[in-house]
Amino acid sequence: MTHQKKKLKVLALFDAIAPTTLDQDLSEELLTEDWKTETNVLSALRELGHTTEYLAIFDNLDLLRQKMEGFQPDVIFNLADQFKNNRAFDQNIVSFLEMYGVPFTGCGSTGLTLCKHKGISKKILSYHRIHTPAFVIVARGKRITRPAKLRFPILVKPLKEEASLGISQASFVSNDEQFKERVQFIHDKYANDVIAEEYIHGRELYVSLMGDLRLQEFPIRELVFKEVPPDEPKIATFKAKWDDEYRERWGLKNQFAEDLDSAVARNIQQTCKRIYRLLTLDGYARMDLRLTANNEVYFIEANPNPILAADEDFALSAAKAGVPYPQLIDRIARHGLRTERG
Ligand SMILES: Nc1ncnc2c1ncn2[C@@H]1O[C@H](COP(=O)(O)OP(=O)(O)O)[C@@H](O)[C@H]1O
Ligand SMILES: [Mg+2]
Fold first, then answer.
1. What pLDDT is stored for residue 64 in this prediction?
2. Parallel, antiparallel, or unpaired for β 172-173 and 221-225?
3. What is the pLDDT of residue 131?
4. Domain 9-106 carries which CATH code?
5. Pairing of strands 75-78, 9-15
6. What's the whole-number mean pLDDT along residues 150-169?
7. Among the atoms of ligand 1, which is closest to the Cα of residue 204?
8. Span from the CA of 33 to the centroid of ligand 2 (angstroms)
9. How far is the CA of 10 from the centre of ligand 1 (A)?
10. Sign (positive or negative) of CA dihedral 208, 121, 151, 183
11. What is the dihedral of CA 312, 314, 319, 324, to 10 degrees?
12. Three-state secondary structure string covering the chain
């Protein structure tokens, strides 16, 4: 585009793991690896010429209200995905923004709520005949039993977690004893109900999409497990995602999916668009999928507002599709500004 778009006042909203103040200086934190996404987004916003301020919140929404009244942002760039150290509250932060009536980036509260609960999203999608693994939910305090029709091997996961928290090779269970032990472990150590799913063998694919009525999908990414022996389960465990040494040892690599038949690739993209709409997503998201040996696409999970760091799958996919990082951030901000909520 040749004409200059209006520059925006953007409030970048972060979460913090301890109480904060209105004008807290986060420059030290922003230099660390943990704050990479926030730093990448802030730099892009500034590079784009937007007037940018930030606020990190822990458990005090009144700070946010004060900040909005003082700064009067055009749009909130929402990078807050927990409240009071609880990741299940991301949807509530967004609900507050919706009620307040301020435009914000990313997905609305309904989409966040449906995706956070790994059982509800699968029920909706299976109703619409999208392949989803069979599963059972085992709530805390309930007797731990496996329904006879749920077949091994099974993957035991926290019902409402992210980033592979609570997922290790021990999550993959092959008998009732292991099943009980792992479910109990998640109940106790992760303070979470459990979703136990039939394990789907296949390639691990990630598809990034953004938009609403007009929806754009980006090239398909894959996590490959080069040095993992063929008979071992291939799972994006916590270590597989975040431990560089472990990734090196087992030959784990995130890359663009190679050698996908074009009809299969098209089917994956179409399926992901349907999933996005069925789950009422309206900002940006990344789908986690499994592709079986006979090219069936299984839904594993939808991630509304996936990690936006410049070197993560979402941004890399966008860049491959011709949307470099600052433009991606600009588009997300402007899309947020335009989206009707509530
Ligand atoms: N039913 C399943 N079959 C095969 N692999 C699975 C299944 N569920 C999860 N996984 C593996 O575990 C990883 C993490 O599970 P996921 O539901 O995406 O949790 P998170 O929200 O922590 O990313 C997936 O990327 C995949 O590698
Ligand atoms: Mg996932």
1. 97
2. unpaired
3. 98
4. 3.40.50
5. parallel
6. 93
7. 27
8. 20
9. 34
10. positive
11. -90
12. CCCCCCCCEEEEEEECCCCCCCCCCCHHHHCCHHHHHHHHHHHHHHHCCCEEEEEEECCCHHHHHHHHHHHCCCEEEECCCCECCEHHHHHHHHHHHHHHCCCECCCCHHHHHHHHCHHHHHHHHHHCCCCCCCEEEECCCCCCCCCCCCCCCEEEEECCCCCCCCCCHHHEECCHHHHHHHHHHHHHHHCCCEEEEECCCCEEEEEEEEECCCEEECCCEEEEECCCCCCCCCCCCHHHHHCHHHHHHHCEEEEECCCCCHHHHHHHHHHHHHHHHHCCCCCEEEEEEEECCCCCEEEEEEEECCCCCCCCHHHHHHHHCCCCHHHHHHHHHHHHHHCCCC
pLDDT above 90 (res 1): no
Both tokens of 159, joined, read 């019902």
> What residue owns the CA closest to ligand 1's atom 1?
199
Measuring from atom 25 of ligand 1, which residue has the nearest CA? 236
CA distance 141 to 184: 10
Structure token digits, residue 231: 């008979």
State the Cα–Cα distance between residues 178 and 187, nearest whole angstrom: 14
Look at ligand 1, atom 2, and give the residue with the nearest C-alpha: 199
Q: What is the pLDDT of residues 228-283, one digit of tens each?
A: 998 899 999 999 999 999 999 999 999 999 999 999 999 999 999 999 999 999 99
Residue located via tokens 């929404």: 61
CATH 3.30.470.20 for domain 113-130+201-338, yes or no, is yes
Taking residues 93-112, what's their average pLDDT?
97
Q: Give long-range contacts, CB 8 A cutoff, 24+ apart: 322-328.
A: 323/218, 325/40, 325/44, 326/44, 326/47, 326/48, 328/44
Kindly give the number of the ligand 1 atom that is closest to the alpha carbon of 165: 22
